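Page 37, continued from 36.
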């Protein structure tokens, strides 16, 4: 019984943790303290729910409990004079004990400025006082609820490095006593690139999870998509904002077709395109058109253009791989990256044959950043299999499976290795 309750708590926490931290950060003006108070609310749920039962509105219960703890913290915090008056004037802080649901609180907050605590949290965590790497790591931790392990895999850097970045970032923000707000004018422009990077990485983690037993984490992808749509509203003249939104809309359109009934991955070439969401495809193509009309040719616009090639193809054989390979070439010239080059290798292999793609992949074998990147041996295995080099392909798939942190991904790679064993 307790196990089922704990699973329910974990599920609610995954969905609501970021919103709770965001609301608390606005109340206490300290993201580190906000995260600690949110964790206190989680501990309270672990204590009370197994005994009292799961409340009718578990998200609201967590939010209300967290706010009470925030108010207790503020009362104990030796706040004097002006600071106490500032907190006392916060309508939501005054009403924290009486808000029946956190959704109502967010709706009330939207009346001023941008009106979304999650956006305030992103822009605060992306303040220029932090390094770019620290901004991204901290925001992924607070907004996406990603573990240090997941962030490390997303960035291809050691886990202790990420942990240190997060600790230092929270300390720096606390010491700087920064305003908890969405910036305006030139300051908005300065921080926008980092914010877009954060949203992009959160979406990627939701689209293909780096760890765990699920191929996707839809709640993360949906949250990133929601934030992308809001960013498009507050920065309507920024082509990269629309480019990122287009990319996420187009990628999201495939999510229903990316797994079978048992949750097992279905690769792009094998997907039933009738299951792709036509509305999201339409929205994505429209966002890409807006980005290009604004003169956009940056990283997100380019990736959206690649996704659009897939979206426009009625079947896998109709995909314009030559165009995709050319777009990846332009993207690699603009933003050199071994991961982009690996994607270009796949497109080249489809346009010119597996031998041409393999030549690129073999050149990437010595890249330090790809040393533990499972997709390098995975792509190599696919190309070797297409060339009829089954024993080498099987070894490559086994290597990729050993590196995979996601259970579904590992199963897929092992299954491909087994197929080659039977066929050889």
């Amino acid at each position: 019984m307790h196990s089922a309750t704990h699973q329910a708590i974990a599920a609610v926490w995954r969905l609501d943790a970021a919103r709770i931290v965001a609301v608390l950060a606005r109340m206490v003006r300290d993201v580190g303290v906000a995260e600690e108070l949110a964790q206190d609310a989680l501990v309270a749920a672990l204590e009370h729910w197994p005994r009292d039962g799961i409340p009718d509105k578990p998200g609201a219960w967590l939010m209300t409990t967290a706010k009470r703890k925030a108010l207790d913290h503020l009362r104990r915090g030796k706040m004097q004079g002006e600071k106490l008056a500032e907190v006392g004037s916060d309508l939501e802080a005054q009403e924290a004990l009486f808000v029946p649901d956190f959704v109502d609180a967010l709706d009330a907050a939207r009346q001023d400025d941008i009106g979304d605590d999650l956006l305030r949290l992103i822009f605060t965590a992306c303040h220029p006082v932090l390094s770019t790497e620290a901004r991204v790591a901290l925001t992924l931790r607070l907004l996406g609820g990603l573990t240090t392990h997941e962030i490390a895999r997303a960035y291809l850097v050691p886990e202790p490095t990420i942990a240190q970045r997060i600790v230092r970032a929270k300390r720096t923000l606390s010491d700087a006593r920064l305003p908890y707000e969405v910036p305006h004018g030139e300051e908005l422009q300065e921080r926008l690139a980092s914010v877009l990077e954060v949203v992009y990485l959160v979406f990627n983690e939701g689209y293909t999870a780096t760890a765990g037993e699920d191929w996707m984490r839809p709640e993360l992808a949906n949250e990133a998509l929601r934030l992308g749509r809001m960013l498009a509203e507050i920065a309507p003249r920024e082509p990269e904002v629309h480019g990122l939104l287009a990319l996420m809309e187009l990628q999201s359109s495939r999510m229903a077709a990316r797994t079978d009934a048992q949750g097992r991955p279905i690769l792009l070439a094998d997907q039933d395109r009738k299951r792709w969401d036509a509305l999201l495809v339409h929205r994505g193509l429209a966002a890409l058109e807006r980005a290009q009309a604004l003169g956009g040719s940056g990283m997100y616009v380019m990736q959206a253009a690649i996704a659009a090639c897939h979206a426009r193809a009625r079947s896998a054989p109709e995909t314009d791989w030559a165009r995709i390979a050319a777009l990846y070439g332009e993207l690699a010239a603009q933003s050199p990256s071994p991961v982009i080059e690996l994607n270009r290798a796949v497109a080249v292999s489809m346009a010119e044959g597996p031998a041409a793609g393999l030549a690129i992949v073999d050149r990437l074998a010595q890249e330090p950043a790809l040393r533990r990147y499972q997709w390098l041996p995975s792509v190599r295995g696919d190309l070797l299999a297409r060339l009829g080099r089954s024993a080498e392909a099987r070894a490559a798939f086994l290597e990729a499976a050993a590196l995979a942190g996601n259970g579904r991904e590992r199963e897929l790679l092992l299954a491909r290795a087994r197929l080659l064993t039977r066929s050889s």
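Residues 1-112 form one domain. Flag for discussion at group meeting. The chain is about 70% helix and 0% strand.
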